[in-house]
Amino acid sequence: MAPGAGRKTWGGIVFQAALLSAAAAAFGLAVNGGHIADYFRGEYRLAFAEGAAAEDPVLINFPEAADLFESGQAVFIDARTPEEFDDGRIAGAMNVPLFDPGSDMIWESLGLPREALIVAYCSGDLCQDSLILGRRLIRRGWPNIRVYVGGWEEWSAAGLPVERGR
C-alpha cells in the first residue's frame, strides 16, 4: 500500500463536514419551515418564560384556574388535539384544537358571547398552543381571555374534576 493511501486529506474532511452541515440545515428548514414562518409572524414568543406582553392574554396559575372553575365564571377551552382531548380534559371543557384547519369554524360554532370569560389551556407549562389560541381570540374580538399555564398536566395531577372520551 502506498504511503498515505486510505487517509483523507484535511481539505476533504472539511469539505465533507461543510457538505453535511449544509444538508442538515436544508433538512431542518424543510421540516420546520411552517414553525419558522409562524415565528416571524409573531406567533411564537417565549411569553411563558419571559412574561407576557401587554397585548397577550392574562396568564393564570393553578389556584386562579381552580377558583374560576369552581365558581363557574369561565368557559374552559382545550387547545390540544382531539385525541388528547378524548384521553382526558378539564370537566366541561370544549375542544378548539389550535392546529386543526377548521379551528376557526369550530370556535365560531361555539357561539360564545364576546364578553365571556374564557380560560384556554393545553398540555402544560411548556406548551404554547393555549397562548397562541388566546392571542387569536383576542384579535377576533374576545377580550376576556386567560391562559392557564399549568394546563392539563397540572390539573390532572391535582385530582380536580376531569372527563374522558367524547
Notes on the protein architecture:
The chain has two domains: 11-41; 47-163, 3-Layer(aba) Sandwich (Oxidized Rhodanese, domain 1), CATH 3.40.250. By secondary structure, the protein is of the alpha/beta class. The termini are far apart. The strands form two sheets. The protein has a five-stranded parallel sheet. Helix 6 (129-139) links the parallel strand 5 and strand 6 (145-148). It has helices spanning 10-40, 47-50, 62-71, 82-87, 103-110, 129-139, 151-157; strands at 58-60, 75-78, 89-90, 94-95, 118-121, 145-148, 162-163. It contains seven helices and seven strands. The protein is elongated and about 75 Å long.
Would you kindly provide a brief summary of this structure?
The chain has 166 residues and is of the alpha/beta class. 46% of the residues lie in helices and 13% in strands. Residues 46-51 have low confidence and may be disordered.
Give the spatial strand order of the biggest sheet: 1-6-5-2-4
Number of helices: 7
Supply the number of structural domains. Answer: 2
Cα-atom Rg, whole angstroms? 23 Å
Terminal CA distance reads: 72 Å
CATH first level of the largest domain: Alpha Beta
Main pleated-sheet profile: 5 strands, parallel
- In CATH, the topology of the largest domain is named Oxidized Rhodanese, domain 1
Tell me how many strands there are.
7
CATH architecture of the largest domain: 3-Layer(aba) Sandwich
Strand content: 5-15%
